[in-house]
Records
---
Amino acid sequence: MKFDPNQHLHLGYYENNVDLEAVAYKIQNENKWVVFLDNEQDTTLVKKILDKYDFHEKYGYKIFTVDADDLSYEVGSKLFEEWLKANNII
């Protein structure tokens, strides 16, 4: 899996006293983005589920992928919010 060095997107959820961020990286020559939970932030809220996800030293926890050529902040953040809800984080 090789990421396009020119395309990544910061995503965030900042409601109800929750401040979590993720970063999406576009796979080079594919219409797919991989979303990682940044492990350098306070992950207390998600700590109980992180062992279900692959950890990558450089990127953090790989939490989901998105099939898309282009990904907007609005769409990516909405998908991140849906992931948080599906995992009973928020």
---
Amino acid sequence: MTSSSDRSPAVDVQSPKTYEVRTYGCQMNVHDSERLSGLLEDAGYVRAPEGSDGDADVVVFNTCAVRENADNRLYGNLGRLAPRKASRPGMQIAVGGCLAQKDRDTIVKKAPWVDVVFGTHNIGKLPVLLERARVQEEAQVEIAESLEAFPSTLPTRRESAYAAWVSISVGCNNTCTFCIVPALRGKEKDRRTGDILAEIEALVAEGVSEITLLGQNVNAYGSDIGDREAFSKLLRACGTIEGLERVRFTSPHPRDFTDDVIAAMAETPNVMPQLHMPLQSGSDTVLKAMRRSYRQERYLGIIEKVRAAIPHAAITTDIIVGFPGETEEDFEQTLHVVREARFAQAFTFQYSKRPGTPAATMENQIPKEVVQARYERLVALQEEISWEENKKQVGRTLELMVAEGEGRKDGATHRLSGRAPDNRLVHFTKPDEEVRPGDVVTVEITYAAPHHLLAEGPALDVRRTRAGDAWEKRNAAEAAKPAGVMLGLPKIGVPEPLPAATGGCAAH
């Protein structure tokens, strides 16, 4: 045993505990992880160096219950940490998010080395639960049944200096048969408009120039107060905030996508010409079985109106292939909608059972080989359309917001990457002058691939921005931190240009 005289008190005082947050699932979880990081840093923890891979004093899993085999992946990861925790007295492991809300006590039974289990409604309790687990030397499981406080009131460790998520609602009032999220996130609860705008104004004052409004069903905003035009009013209000250059939102639901929202998008200059509109299926029969409250004609009508009002809008979607009972004719209807809508990109998923959802017990589950074959046909069609739509961008002059970490080959090709107003990814030739993430570069598109564009000529213009200043200031501050306390800027928290969720809750 080591005596107290063998230890260095100076190290105990000067070395703060480190943390690592691992995030799974949708944009909601990514934003929740920003809050978990903020809470832990507010409590005195510092982020573990990038690549520490479980060597932190506290490892937090922010889980998703929507993805296939989510529980197996969680327990596999927990199992890999068990020997490390056994060899490191004082290390703690916490599990939160949707899977924690669903499985509750099961997690501690299957992985008794876990210290804390918390749900989607009480993420603010994490530091207290960690301390309680340490003092009492036993696992703390605390799952709230309803939202205790709107999460945006919590400390937040934003992962990007120039782009930010802004949550406008939590929960969902829909009952889609493939989705368990409403049972885990609860009924929709909206934030006050004034609070949302105040948060955006504060972010802009810090240098943020792009915000993404976030909600499980973002355009149903206002249902709490009975104002069906609340979302369009919010978009227009964002247009009055000086210094806010780009506004995006995800994910809307076709049921709530009204003409006033289209008008607000078209008439508010800083609302970007981009729309992610989940389709899920093009078959009216399947949509009914999914309990999606729109039909093919309604969906295509929305797309037509958006294109009429915003000709250059890039429209993306989510599609599920092989939902129980889907016939070849049903699938052909999905292909028909894809051809008609001409999506810039589609996030396509093979249906798989999600325990706890009505669809999991439906008859006529589709054989795996049939689902796979249909999936491949859909992907091939969408790939062709994506390429054709991208080719239409060649010759256009676009303003790009320079992005961080989006071009894996940028170093080798001497290029940088940025996002066009419609959120298409563009790799462009690195200008002679310094360009920072958050700055704006004007380029001419010279080449199109299915998933990105190239601007191979010299930049036509480079505009240094307050967002670039904020990025530079933040990086300088982080670089000045002592070794071992580097927080870095991991890519996961920067709002994705297109929903990264593979079947996640915000994609429905």
---
Amino acid sequence: MRGVDQRCVPGSQVDPRVAELRSAVARLRRQLAAHRVEFRDRGVAEEALAMLAGLAAADHPDIPVLRRSLLLVAGAIGSVSALGEGLRQLREAVDLFGTSPRA
């Protein structure tokens, strides 16, 4: 996992954290599409992943919305073990933007 302080690679315009987020979202979306077993919150997971894809398309995603969307995805697919690795990778990509403040 890369450090939070790492920013753009010289000669590149894309923040490596954003690139990692885009990759993790795309990977989990593909895994979810390939998972043929229906489950109750699949629609919620698909909508939250679409939201994350939109956030990842921005150069500077809204971090609180990013975290809320991650929670929706985790709640929707957290019990689907076949998607566990993709969910872990997504969480790690979101964590690259820093930890959320504790209330």
---
Amino acid sequence: MSNKLLDLIQSSNAKWVDFRFTDTRGKEQHISFPASTVDEDVMEDGKMFDGSSIAGWKGIEASDMILRPDPETAFIDPFFDAVTVVVTCDIIEPSTLQGYDRDPRSIARRAEEYLKSTGIGDTAYFGPEPEFFVFDDVKWSVDMSGVSHKITAEEAAWSTNESYEWGNMAHRPRVKGGYFPVPPIDSSHDMRAVMCERIEEIVGEGSVEVHHHEVASCQSEIGVAFNTMVRKADEVQQLKYVVHNVAHQFGKTATFMPKPIVGDNGSGMHVHMSISKDGVNTFSGDEYAGLSETALYFIGGVIKHARALNAITNPSTNSYKRLVPHYEAPIKLAYSASNRSASIRIPHVSSPKAVRVEARFPDPTANPYLAFAALLMAGLDGIQNKMHPGEAADKNLYDLPPEEEAQIPTVAESLDVALQALRDDHEFLLKGDVFTEDMLEAFIALKEEEVQRLNVTVHPVEFDMYYSC
């Protein structure tokens, strides 16, 4: 039987194999082995490594873990000098030889298996849209003497009076004006095109559907094709890797931080979802906007559990600086066809096969494996308990009378609020042992450290508001 990883090692004459996995926070980690040591036995047994230094994972007293490569994920790294084949791994618990309960990819795998066990469907399809910023120079300082950050970006709206050694070329988008004039205002077109080329080298030809400048200064999006849930999460990690490294090659710096710029739009990661059974899209039907009753119940589950989901889909303190009114942020927990002010949108499609729902509140700080698994589990809970979401919201939800606005629930206001919601509402994640209490406790503890670090740090705005009190 052909093995993509072993075949690629041989055909490319690779010197190294880079084993990659994703930690709890969503950051890819890697360790490289000589290609000559990767054989059929490694496919079965994996490679041992020390998991004690991975935040939120094992302690030093029980640190041995197994990296088991998934050969279907193999690709040749386009950035390393030495020929290197990259492969994504599952983390295996040595004592049970099962997926580690805190390994994000293993959690997503269990979610896919749980879907099959319910009889609701056999395949979950996901299509995320991670947006990102690219700057020329970013500096920050956090110490006892004070805090500061400074973003330098020739394209940015604030750079009209900056001096550059090559001159100030003057063509740039205004605030919220980046969607989407041609170059030279869109200064990142060529860089995005290279990013798309690298993504297609890794993921496959035809995987990129579109690229364009986004609304904010220095903000971009690369639209990619949907895939099954775990594979799509793999591809999100690959896209991030490409974006970071191509920007670096261009002498720039890219970030998926949701809100690096005050006063302009932030970056989201809208997530398109559907469930298929025996090759039939179960979300297609005769209800609102061409949805099925199953799809409406799925939406109901996502809305019901949204504030708990926020802890996983919006897992940074910075996430909630994006989720504020008037920046096209989907803070209202409602659903609608084409209405981008609702947190759940039903895109217009030309075929019943393409019917899907789009959750608009997630952002790209989310660990894609955890976020997709949690969204699926919330939707399945809605289907199992027939949680109808009520009437659709076809009005502009940013422009409602106060009494009407008060009746529509919202996403969490901050990360600590979202973490408390997850504490109070997580039974739906435990079904089928997809998530575990232990994993969720470790995740919450990790995120509480971030909340606490921000809370105890003196902020320049506090000097502005209180220094002369």
